[in-house]
Amino acid sequence: MKIYVSCDMEGIGGVTLREQLIRGELLYEEARRLLTLETNAVTEALLAAGATHIVVKDAHGSGFNFIPELLHPKAEYVMGATRVENRFPGLDDSFAGALLIGYHAMGGTALAVRDHTMTSQGWQSLRLNGRPIGEIGLDALLIGQRGVPVLLVSGDDKTCMEAASELPEVAAYATKTALGRHAALLKPPQRVRSELQEAVRRAVGNAKSVKPLQLAGPYELTIRFLHTEQADARRYDGTQAERLDGLTAVYRADDLTELLSIAF
Ligand SMILES: [Zn+2]
Predict the structure, then answer these.
(1) Quick one: CA dihedral 133, 137, 143, 144, positive or negative?
(2) Residue 154: beta bridge partners?
């Protein structure tokens, strides 16, 4: 059984502050360690649940946050920058499922640790075919396009609520209760790791009953920026890419991957 794991950092146990999430900041090295150890706990649970091939993607920022020396020896790791057209290298329909670990709520969510969609600096929010969407929904669609279902989402309580509305049949595990963008009632990381392992075992056991998320095209992606200059800096052709107002642009394509490559 092959399983793909995408690991972001905002939703990892013990992570709450901006200083934990940016390379060079004082608390980043400790947060990398938390990320790596939580990732290893997931791998251990997947092996116990019968996984024979595990690919883990480092999905935060630069894509290079895991501490290589500490990584579990029985998985393979995608690290470094990948383009949005190739967001999950190596993923194909031979995988039985995917896990979204350490994720966060979409931009604009109230009381959610580091809520954002794709970038914290530039965009307020995204809509796909008129419906608000965050990274959970986008990633589940990209994974679903390959015929693979998402089996588990972890992150703060708002991440779990978003997962429940995007993926109603999918399990979610809350690593913390968010009290603000930079505040949370934290579960200790050691407890997170053991509870998450239990959630992984249950989710993998449930794999056959979960369907890949799919949405038929054509697609329309609306981006709401924070500043007009961000919208100014883009190119518009009036059909595939169009500016709707000072802060809003819309992108259109029949194919989801093509849509993301023109919009991002
Ligand atoms: Zn991130």
Answers:
(1) negative
(2) 173
CA 238 to ligand 1 center in whole angstroms: 32
User: Is 35 within 8 Å of 6 (Cβ atoms)?
Assistant: no
Better-scored residue on pLDDT, 120 or 193: 193
Q: Which domains does the chain have, with CATH numbers?
A: 2-108+134-209 (3.40.50.10780), 219-263 (no CATH)
For 99-150, what is each residue's pLDDT tens digit?
999 999 999 999 999 999 887 666 889 999 999 999 999 999 999 999 999 9
Task: Compute the distance from residue 104 Cα to the ligand 1 centre, in Å.
Answer: 8
Would you list the DSSP string of the chain? Answer: -EEEEEE-STTSTT--SGGGTSTTSTTHHHHHHHHHHHHHHHHHHHHHTT-SEEEEEE-STTS--S-GGGS-TTSEEE-S---GGGSSTT--TTEEEEEEEEE-PPTT-TT-TT--BSBTTTEEEEEETTEEE-HHHHHHHHHHHTT--EEEEEEEHHHHHHHHHH-TTSEEEEEEEEEETTEEEEPPHHHHHHHHHHHHHHHHHTGGGPPPP---S-EEEEEEESSHHHHHTS---SSSEEEEETTEEEEEESSHHHHHHHH-
Cα-to-centroid distance, 139 and ligand 1 (Å)? 13
pTM: 0.96
Residue 116 annotated to the active site:
yes
Mean pLDDT, range 154-170, rounded to an integer:
96
Single out the catalytic residue among 60, 72, 104, 116: 116
